[in-house]
Amino acid sequence: MRVLVVNPNTTAAVTDLLVAAAAPVAATGTELVPLTAPRGVPYLATRAEAQIGGAIAIEMLAEHHASADAAIIAAFGDPGLFGARELFDIPVIGMSEAAMLTACMLGRRFAIVTFATTLGTWYRECVEMHGLRERCCGVRALDQSFRSLADVQEEKEDLLVSLANQAVTDDEADVVVLGGAPLAGLASRVRNRVPVPLVDPIASAVKQAEALVTLAPRKAIAGTFRRPAAKPTLGLSEKLAARIEHRDSDSPS
Length: 253
Description:
Blueprint: E1 2-7, H1 12-22, E2 31-36, H2 47-64, E3 70-73, H3 81-87, E4 92-94, H4 95-104, E5 110-114, H5 120-129, E6 136-141, H6 152-155, H7 157-171, E7 175-178, H8 186-190, E8 198-199, H9 201-215, H10 238-244
Parallel strand pairs: 1-2, 1-3, 3-4, 5-6, 5-7, 7-8
Helix pairs in contact: 4-9
């Protein structure tokens, strides 16, 4: 089983962090294939950046989907997720959706804890996008600068743990999701410092990818996630243009 780990920002160190956190939970025989955005921004934090990252993620999927069994949009906020599910035949998993649905199976209400206030609005809108507003009791974020994106979890570990505990006591969270790709792996390290389950989004996404590949759902040919009809393109990458124009090997005859 080959699972693409698609990081739609340009920080390769974060991609490495994601794969390192995901590898211990991956089943024997699951190959995690890391992909880092070739252009864009170091990390996604705003609506505009999410739109850019989503488009780049779809380009990367167009390039690599044919050799994979599933793909993960490895950014909390799931940029490009619905478009990717529409366009490609393999299961595409959103890291935040997988985390939130996992949290819903562990408790009634979950909170999201993250490392920067700029992420809060986008994450709240992600909760709404997935129809989980009634299950989410809040998004809490640190209001501090940080030295390095790849090292933010080590730098802010104690503060993030404190914030998670506040979500439990003040927001009555049954589960806490540690949101943001740079926090990958933190949940397993601090799980005994918070009195409710902690969810790691990339670990949840990997297990969901494996489950969907095993279940082998068909690609929709009706409904809103069916593949769009062919249309001409201008200026897109060759692989993405071929996918949209139905010139690729998966196109119907």
